Amino acid sequence: MSRYDLNVLLYRLKKDRAFRERFRSDPAAAVRAADLTDEEREAFVRWDPRRLNELGGSLHLVLSIPDLGAH
Amino acid sequence: MGRIVYAAAMSHVLHPPYYEKNVGPHGKRMVEELIAVVGDMGRELAARRPDALVVVADDHLNVFSFDAVPAMCVRIGRSVSRMAQEGAIEFDRALDGLAERYPVHEELAHRILEEGLEAGFDFAASWSAPLDHAFLSPLTALHGGRPMPPLVPFWVNCFVAPLPSARRCFAAGQHIARVIANGPWNVGVIATGGLSHFPELSMARVGESDPEFDRRVVGWMERGEHASLTALTAKELHATGSHELLNWMVLLGAVAPARARVRFFGEMGRIDLAALEWLLADPQGGHE
């Protein structure tokens, strides 16, 4: 269970523009160091907000990441 | 002796473009009607000349992160800033163009915090947390162009489980009312958020609301049936998407046993919108 790490990444994506740009250009590299399950990592790399939410990602984070928000 | 001179609870995304995009023209129209009602309520509030305004709202993972989420937090310090969010999506865009800094009523904030800790409420304190739309969208609609009285921002964790109980939030409101009664100030109390939306905080269910539940809780407030409200469980609040009612519970504890007057109730589909007020003391000084 890495709900914490998953949400820390979502929070960084919302708040840290440089990280968000790195993620957009190479999502696998941007999340490589994070302590995630394979399923969580895949949801980030494919950018599947609904799956991230099902895996414990805060709804308000997945909905509100600039340019990636799922609203 | 201090008094709560006015209290109101209302939805907090008072931003027509958000509803236009996510609901359509009828959503935009409905929120515009609500904004007009909230403007009238703001004139009622201003007529009662509050020295301070306690504002109870929640954070949307804007201010606090998963590193630490306080169950309840009092903002202290001399002033508080508006949250800055570069490239914000619609509900954060409700902040665009608003003033960047707002005064804090330091003394009332400290009394709520310090006397709370003495009384067994382990409130967190923040010197730096900024305000997101949950505070500033309704405050702006209430005040229009008038200056705001000094604020006491008070956060309740409505979204990162486990949440404080409805009963505990109500008790925190009773504490705030005691502090106000023991002080010299006339105070307004505002709670924001809701009604039901985002059930189970599940993206798959975004767009659903529970109007039957909303009608029931608003009816309880109109009739002053506070025991029914504080008996709501975390499971019920989560299932219906009524997490933000926890903010309203703090207000209810502060105003009980007063009954609400419903100024606006609209069933929109994605979310129901409401604005309620509690008239606790008339502007000339007598209690109603």
Protein architecture, described:
The complex is a heterodimer of chains A (71) and B (288). In chain A, helix 1 crosses helix 2 (17-25). Chain A has one domain (3-62). Chain A has helices spanning 3-15, 17-25, 27-30, 38-45, 49-54, 59-62. With 71 residues, chain A is an all-alpha fold. The longest helix of chain A has 13 residues, at 3-15. Chain A is globular. Chain A contains six helices and no strands. In chain A, 62% of the residues lie in helices and 0% in strands. Chain B has 288 residues and is an alpha/beta fold. Chain B has one domain (3-278): Protocatechuate 4,5-dioxygenase, Chain B. Chain B is built from ten helices and ten strands. Chain B has helices at 16-22, 25-47, 90-93, 106-118, 133-143, 166-182, 211-223, 226-230, 234-240, 245-255; strands spanning 3-10, 52-57, 72-75, 79-81, 101-103, 124-126, 151-156, 186-192, 261-267, 272-278. In chain B, strands 6-3-7-2-8-1-10-9 form an eight-stranded mixed sheet, with helices on both faces. A two-stranded antiparallel sheet of chain B has the order 4-5. In chain B, strand 9 and strand 10 (272-278) form a beta hairpin. In chain B, helix 2 packs across helix 5 (133-143) and helix 4 packs across helix 6 (166-182). The interface between A and B is medium-sized, with 24 and 23 residues.
What is the percentage of strand-forming residues of chain A?
under 5%
How is the biggest beta sheet of chain B arranged? Answer: 8 strands, mixed
CATH class value of chain B = Alpha Beta
Structural class of chain B: alpha/beta
Major beta sheet summary of chain A? none
What do we call the CATH topology of chain B? Answer: Protocatechuate 4,5-dioxygenase, Chain B
Termini Cα gap of chain A: 26 Å
Report the principal-axis shape of chain A.
globular
Instruction: Calculate the mean pLDDT score of chain B and round it.
Output: 93
How many separate structural domains of chain B?
A: 1
